[in-house]
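Recall from the previous chapter that SMILES is a line notation for molecules. Here it describes adenosine-5'-triphosphate.
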Amino acid sequence: MHFHYDVPGDDFSCAGSTSAEMKKKLKQLGIPFDIVKRTAVAMYEAEINMVVHAGGGEADIDILDDEIVIVMKDHGKGIADIEQAMQEGFSTAPQLVQELGFGAGMGLPNMKRNSDFMTIDSKVGVGTTVTMRIKLSASGAGVKNDVGVSGASGAADVAAPGVAQGGG
Ligand SMILES: Nc1ncnc2c1ncn2[C@@H]1O[C@H](COP(=O)(O)OP(=O)(O)OP(=O)(O)O)[C@@H](O)[C@H]1O
Ligand SMILES: [Mg+2]
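With both inputs in hand, we obtain:
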């Protein structure tokens, strides 16, 4: 099942509506609440980043047999140093955006925490694509993997396929 959304970049007042819509759809499909919650949070943060830092973009969500794949793509300014951007507390959000309550530098870490697998592909001046995968199987839920990065920073894409580590 595939869903596609355009995320407008010029309207703060409706930022978050795409992830809210997706959350509703997932609930209707009977996806377990924990998975719905994690998907909604991960998607919300990516959506807000698109609006705040990249002038909007597109969201593509695939619901597969064993996982939800979220691809958030924009043609914004890109991220120069992905490792730095991933640090909790790092933010380049301007004053105006901070006054609206964004810019704590917690979005990307939160996306990583809520997905089983995440890659960021970004090039300065070209744009950013964030791909997140959330496993539908109980054994996969909560398994966190390192973020693979690629792009202008020169870091290699080191993303490994999600490996479930059974808790016993
Ligand atoms: N889609 C994007 N395009 C360009 N830069 C981005 C994008 N997403 C994130 N960044 C950069 O990475 C930084 C960290 O992002 P993160 O979401 O963690 O924090 P934030 O958006 O600044 O604050 P918060 O998410 O807590 O409101 C941003 O400040 C910005 O510099
Ligand atoms: Mg953010």
